[in-house]
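Figure caption, in words: inputs first, then the predicted bound structure.
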Amino acid sequence: MLDQRRLPGEVIYHSYADYRDVAKAIKDMVIRGAPAIGVAAAMGVALGVERSKAKTLEELRVEFATICDTLGRTRPTAVDLFWAIDRFKRRFAELALAAADQGAAGLAGIRTSLVEEAQKLHQERRDADVRIGRFGAELMPKSGRVMTQCNAGALATGGIGTALGVIRMAVEGGYRIEVLVPETRPYLQGARLTAWELHQDHIPLTLITDNMVGHFLKTGGVGAVVVGADRIASNGDTANKIGTYGIAVLARENKVPFYVAAPISTLDLSIASGDQIPIEERSQEEVTHLAGVRISPDVRAAHPAFDVTPARFIDAIITERGVARAPFETSLAALAGARDEG
Ligand code: MRU
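Bound structure (MRU present):
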C-alpha cells in the first residue's frame, strides 16, 4: 500500500503479511477512499485465508468469520467495504461446498480461489473507473473550471478514480479543464492527495481553502462540480467527505450542476434514505492539530468524517452502468439490476 498519510511529502509503500495489519492500515487511513477500502478489504480477506494455519474446513470456516469481522470493524461509512466482505462470504460458501470431503486439496483450492477473487475484484474496480469516466466526461464543460472535493482519484480506487476519472477522461478527450480543489479540512485529502495526483498528471488545478467554495461557485466560472461517494441510499441521498453537502447547496444556489461519480458497489439499496447512513466520528486531534502541531487551545472538537447530501441537490449520479437522474429510486434500482457492458 502506498501510505496516503505521508503524501505528498514522502512516497512510502508498505507490504502486509497479516490481515490484522491490513485492517489497521484501513482504520489508520494508510489507504482510504471507498472503492480502495473495498479492494484492501478483499485483499485482506484473501491474505488472511492464504496464511491461515487451519487444517480442516471447519477450522478455516471459524477463522474466515474472524477475518471478515476484523476487517468489517475498520471504517463504518464506506459501503464498499461491506460489499467486498459480503462478496467474499458468498464466494467462500460456494468454495467450501465444493471443497467438502476433499481434505487438504480442498483447502488449498479455497486459498488460491480467494486470492484470484481479490485480484478479479481489483481489476473490476479499474474497469468500472474507466466506464464511469467515459459517461461522466460527457457531462463536463468543454472548457473552464470543475470543482471536486476530497480525493476521489486513483489513490481512492486503485484505478483512475471516480470523480477524478471523469476529469481525466474529459482532459484526455481534449476538454480544457482546470480543477478547483478544496483543501478538505481536517484531513486535507484535497490539498495533500488530489493536488498531488493532478499535479503528477499535469492537469491544471487551483487549490482553495474550504471557505472559498461559495465565493468560487458564485464568481469563478465553475461549469460543474463532480465528487465521489461513500454510500448512496435508494433515494439518491449520498454520503461523502464532510463539506460535500455545503458544496452541493452552494452549487444549486449558483446554478452549477452537481454530479456524484461512484461505482454500483457504492449503492446501498437496503436503506431508504441517507438518514440511515452511519457517519464515522474520527478523532478530535485531527481537528485540533495540523501535521502533529496543535492549532487550537485544549478544547473539545467535533469530527464527523462525512455528511449526507440530499438527493434533491444532485443533478446526476454517474456509475459504470450509466447515468442516473431523479427520481433516483427508479433510476438507481434499474442500474443496480442491469448488467455490465464490456
Ligand atoms: O475518509 P476518506 O478519505 O476515506 O473519505 C473519502 C471520500 O469521502 C471520497 O470522496 C469517497 O470515498 C469516494 S472515493 C472514490
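The chain has two domains: 19-131, 135-337.
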